[in-house]
Structures are given as C-alpha cells and as structure tokens.
Amino acid sequence: MRECVTALERASAACNALSCNLRMTNEGIPNLTAFDDAALDKAFGALARTARESAATLHSDAAVEAFRLEWLGRKQGRLNEVSDRWLKTAPPEARKAVGQRFKVLKELIEELLDGASGSAPSDGALAAEAIDITLPGTRRLTGAEHPITRTMNEIVAVFAALGYSVGVGPEVETDYYNFESMNFPAGHPARDTQDTLVIAGQDRKPLRDRLLLRTHTSPVQMRTMEQQPPPVRIVIPGKVHRNDAADATHSPIFHQVEGLCVDVNVTFNDLKGTLDHAMKALFGSSVKTRFFPSFFPFTEPSADVQISCIFCGGKGCRKCKDSGWIELLGCGMVDPAVFAFAAEKQPAYDPRKISGFAFGMGVERIAMMKYGISEIGSFYAGDMRFLGQFT
Ligand code: DAH
Question: Residue 55 half-sphere exposure, CB side, CA atoms within 13 Å?
Fold first, then answer.
C-alpha cells in the first residue's frame, strides 16, 4: 500500500512541475542589462537550472515533446528568444562570451532530451505498475514422486541394498518371452489366467514371434539370463497389461517388481530369508511372513507369500477377512525347464550346476496397503487432492 501511495505522489509531483515550467515559458526571457561574465553566468545558470529541473519530471512521450518545443521550438522556443534578446543585442566585445554560453546551454538541452526516455512510465502506467503487496502471491505447486513410482523405488532400494542390480524390458513382448520361455507351452491352461491383450495382425507369424502386451515382468528374467551368465541378482520394475475389468482393486494396466537370483547352491531357505527381510523392510520389523504352496509354470516349488495383517497385527479383521494374513506376492525356485531355455543362449545355466529363486509382486497392491488406499483408480485419476498428499 505504501508503495502505491509513493507512486501516486510521484506522479502528481511530476504533473505540477511540468505545468509550472510551462507557465514560466509564458513569462518569457528578460532583457539583459549587463554583459559582464558574472551577469552572463548568472543569467545562463538560472536557465540551465530551470531546464534541469523540468527535464527531471519528464515521464511520458507527450511531456518530452512539450519540453522540446518549450526550449528548441523554431519560433517560440526559449533558445530562440535567448538568441534574439541576448546574443543578437550583445555589444560586440561580449558576443563571444554570450555565444559560448549559448552553445553550452543548447548542448545541455539536447543532452537532457536524449536522457529523457519517452518510454518511462506515464502517470497512468505508474499507477498500474504499482504492486499491492497485500494480495496473495502466485502459488507454485511442489512437484512430487507419484505414489506408484515412490513405492516401486522403495521396493527396488530394499533389494539394491542386498546387492541386486536393476533391469528393464519391453512392454510390447513376444509370445516366446512372455509365455513359452517361462514354461507356458502353447495351449497350456495357465495362459488363460493371464487375460492377455494381443497386438492385432500377428496371425501369419509363428506363435513364438507374435507380439502382445506383456502380462507380467517375468519375461525379463529370460532376457536377463540370455544377456549374462550366472551369478545373477536382479530386480525388474515395470508396467504390465491384462484384459481385466477395472474394479476397486484391479486395473488393466498395473505395475510389478520382478526378482531373480541365480547362483550355485541357492536354496528355498535363501528365498525365504530374502523375502522375509524385504517384507520387514517395507512394512516394519514386526511383520511376519509365511509361505503357502502355490503354482506358477516357471517355478517349482512355487509359493504365495503372506504377511501378518498390518492392520490388526494378525488378530483378524475385515481387511484380512479374519484370517490374520494378507497374500502379497508369488515366488518359487526357478523351474529347470526355464534354465533349459536360458541355456540355449548361455550354456552356464545348467540346472545340474546352478539353482535360483524368483519372485514377483504387484506394486499397486503394496502401495494401497502402505498408504491405506482403497480404490486402485485413485492412482490414475490425476486428482491433485489425492496426489498432493504425497508431496
Ligand atoms: N509373474 C507372476 C504373475 O504375474 C508373478 C510371479 C510369481 C513372478 C512367482 C515370479 C514368481 O517371478 O516366481 O502373476
């Protein structure tokens, strides 16, 4: 507010000074009675001072033009009058002294005109430019990691700390990597559980080359093994697609983190210890794990990992359907048939010499549990009220 007032005051002062000087024009230039140096200095000095004061108040194109006319105007300009009254009437011996001072005054006026910027704010512009500091500022939103990215990074970080590296693979995948090399033979009923979205126009290709949207991150296990001999310790975060109807807990596009560990003498006990540690790191050290027999074509034996319910501590509640346990991920020992596919490119994957375990978890499911989110759709809706809670 103070700044506002100051700007207005300045504008009105400028206005006064201008009209005051214009009035002086009408008063004209007095005749000189003495032409000695002191009298000339006094007379020219007074004009120079007036010009300076007046020039300091020029804040618009119109004011600059008025100033130019006032001093340099052909007929009624002040310098013209000075020339008529002081220069032309000067006694011959004083001509030079008057002429020199006249020249200096003219240069001064021209300098002042050069310095006066017509683009300087006009009185109106000054007021418009004034800042009202009582108004709220422009709010800039804080950027933040999306909760899915954040959860994915947290999971990856747990395994990175155990010495795992991170890999990625394509979302548009071939039938071979998504199914065949993962030990889902053509026509195997387990393929049906994956609700696959296929790319159109692939029918003329051999089955193994047909493109589809990967239904899981497991094909990157095979891509990794083909690229490097054992030992392998890798986690693979990524997006997967299934022809699933969306509901509160399902989305046709979601995310997984895959894990693969292959070395000599890797046992089911290593698998249990690794995943028990990972679940404690993600959900808190009081969480317990249990391994429930399951089936996946690419692991034998296979298990579902359950964690003690993080909502009731295992006593039984609505969230865990009174069981005290929540199913969270799949895992198992890598099936020798999978190693046989890898050995086609990397003979070191000889199931008689090496062994390994694999696991795969759904990122959305873990994020929903960690942050108490009940609708999977909240992740994708782009609602700032939801996303803003993760800044
Ligand atoms: N690929 C499985 C799925 O999407 C998850 C999974 C289960 C991955 C067991 C694994 C595993 O690596 O060993 O349902």
Answer: 18
Atom number, ligand 1, closest to the C-alpha of residue 360? 8
Distance 115 CA to ligand 1 centre (A): 77
- Closest residue CA from atom 7 of ligand 1: 330
pTM score over 0.85: no
Tens place of pLDDT for every residue, the chain, 391 residues? 344 434 444 444 443 433 333 334 445 788 888 899 999 999 999 999 999 898 888 888 888 889 999 999 988 899 999 998 898 888 899 999 999 999 999 999 999 988 876 655 556 667 767 888 888 888 888 888 999 999 999 999 999 999 999 999 999 999 999 999 999 999 898 888 779 999 999 999 999 999 999 999 999 999 999 999 999 999 999 999 999 899 999 999 999 999 999 999 999 999 999 999 999 999 999 999 999 999 999 999 999 999 999 999 999 999 899 999 999 999 999 999 999 999 999 999 999 999 999 999 999 999 999 999 999 999 999 999 999 999 8
CA of 53 to the centre of ligand 1 (A): 86
Q: Whose CA is nearest to atom 3 of ligand 1?
A: 216
Residue 37 in tokens: 């140096």
CA distance 77 to 90: 19
* Residue type present at position 46: A
Q: Give domain 147-390's CATH superfamily.
A: Bira Bifunctional Protein; Domain 2 (3.30.930.10)
Omega prior to 170 cis, within 30 of 0: no
Ordered by start, the domain boundaries in the chain are 31-129, 147-390
For residue 298, the ligand 1 atom closest to its alpha carbon is 13
Helix/strand number for the chain, H first, E second: 13, 9
CB-defined site of ligand 1, < 6 Å:
216, 218, 258, 296, 299, 330-332, 358-360
